[in-house]
Amino acid sequence: GSILAIGSYKNVNKGSVKVFKYKSGGNWTQRGLNIIGENTGDGFGKSVSLSADGSSIAIGAPRSDANGTNSGHVSMYVYDETNKKWFLRGKNIIGSEAGLKFGISVSLSADGSVVGISTKSYSGTTCYVRVFENKMQDEWIQRGGCLGGNEIIEKETYVKLASTGSVVAISVPEYDDENEVASGLVKVFDYNSFTNKWTQIGDTIRGDGNNHMLGRSMDISSDGSVVAVGGRTNYPAKVYKYNDNSKKWQQKGQSIQVDTDATYYGLSLSSSGSIWVVLYSDIVRVLTYDELTNQWLESSANFPVLNYTDYNGEMDSSILSSADAITVAVNAGDKVDIYQLESPQVDNSLICKGDSFFFNLMIQPDQFP
Which residues form the FG-GAP repeats (predicted)? Predict the structure, then answer.
């Protein structure tokens, strides 16, 4: 939790990303210069993801016209500690055709060598997510086939990788399931390096009703065995654990009911899958799993009421936590506030120029120093 990346995809029109590192004394200092997008309107910084040590970053530009209008691309950068600069790692990974919006969501493995990239599923295919691996000379090679389903949905999708990059969760919040509109779904896949194929793990986690939009918020544990999912505020947030005997995803603990008057909510899961942080409106709840009672117990951490009035309601842009859930970053409209649960005070506020509605953030998953 000592490194934070903040994307502002309408800043200076081209979009930009800033990376900050925590220093002793409660100060956050910028790491390297701003990473600036290539062209105006690309949406550069719409999605960001850091490696575990904070030295690698993936940045999505889903509105890039690199291969046709809104085909999208993803740029991979690595930090040079000697020169204090961010350098492009290999060539941009480019969407295969116009309208794909490749890079709506990105997720890096812990070592930064594997990246998952989601899209808007496009006409004539069932492709939702592609995964790429960096093998040699900074060349990004697709790992296995395209992940998706049997249906052509033409909806925006989102992706989360487990730490090794061999397990991936994908969500389609606006998925229409039989007679239900925008109920949403989440699927988890495992990669077999011998066959170079992805296989779905267990059953599909589906939304509970019309406009649930399950998967609008989503996170996965480091080993890929636990998934936290949320949707619209009138439906509860839930955690699922994979049962190897039944080959199904079974709910872990009770559902967490979100205030129906809340205007938004987001969630973040610890690496072990035993702690999760839920944000709705101006309330933050930290919950720890109790094995004996099979219940989520609320932490005594006393978060202040946030009083945030600006929020864009988009995937991943509300709240994120470090691997141990001690450090929590909250999107605060025109700033990002960092909290340490041992002493829930605002350590510092990172102010980014640009429209407050267009922030996305990613906190490095290491433990807070």
Answer: 30-86
Strand partners, 339: 328, 346
User: Sign of the CA dihedral 247, 250, 230, 225?
Assistant: negative
Three-state DSSP class for residue 306: coil
Q: Is residue 279 a contact partner of residue 266, using CB atoms and an 8 Å limit? A: yes
- The CATH fold of domain 3-363: Methylamine Dehydrogenase; Chain H (2.130.10)
Kindly write down the DSSP assignment for every residue of 190-247, as one continuous string.
EEETTTTEEEE-SS-EE-SSTT--BTSEEEE-TTSSEEEEE-STTS-BEEEEEETTTT
**Six token digits for residue 141:** 């090679």
- Other C-beta atoms closer than 10 Å to the C-beta of 323 total 23
Residues of the chain falling short of pLDDT 70? 1, 11-12, 25-26, 121-126, 149-153, 233, 259-264, 281, 300-318, 325-326, 332-335, 341-369
Phi-psi region of 313 (alpha: psi -120 to 50; beta: other; left: phi over 0): left
Question: What are the structural domain ranges in the chain?
Answer: 3-363
3-state helix, strand, coil in the chain (%, to 5): 0, 45, 55
Distances 289 to 27, 29, 49, 254, 277 between C-alpha atoms, Å: 32, 35, 26, 10, 12
Residue 60 has, within 13 A of its CA and on its CB side, a CA count of 30
pLDDT of amino acid 307: 59
Best CA proximity match to 325, nearest among 271, 281, 279: 271
Query: For the whole model, what pTM was predicted?
Result: 0.88
Q: Give the integer Cα–Cα distance in Å for 152 and 50.
A: 31
- pLDDT computed for residue 315 by the predictor: 42
